[in-house]
From TrEMBL:
Residues 7-103 form the Pyridoxamine 5'-phosphate oxidase N-terminal domain. SUPFAM superfamilies: FMN-binding split barrel (SSF50475). Keywords: Oxidoreductase. It comes from Amycolatopsis vancoresmycina DSM 44592. This is Pyridoxamine 5'-phosphate oxidase. InterPro entries: F420-binding_dom_put, F420H2_bilvrd_red/Heme_oxyg, Pyridox_Oxase_N, Split_barrel_FMN-bd. It comes from the Bacteria. Pfam families: PNPOx_N. One of its GO terms (molecular function) is coenzyme F420 binding.
Amino acid sequence: MELPGDLLALLRGPSLCFLSTLMPDGSPQLTQTWVDTDGTHILVNTVLGHQKQRNIARDPRVALNVADRERPSRYYAVRGQVVDMTEDGAVEHIEELAQRYLGGPYPWWGGRDQTRLLLTIKADRIAS
């Protein structure tokens, strides 16, 4: 599914994003996260071993809400699935996101020994 231009603009800015994954019992798990795009997919950066990563490894289905920081009522709801989870480029990606969201280098809150992962999400359904 092609990402609409207005959604791409939100994904390329410091937008609010909430990512929902599924716990082993099927209940939702919600995380606020930074978000990005490669122009075709939605990109999220996470850490190996975090709950959302463990959930996605078991069940790749996700839902996201991406909202404009200045006008939260301007948002997109996306359902899809994680089609790739890789360490390749993930450290560089989190540094790029930190520049966008914080205006500086990533502070490595959990320590530099964390393994960063880049999640690639294919949208199956988009609503605004």
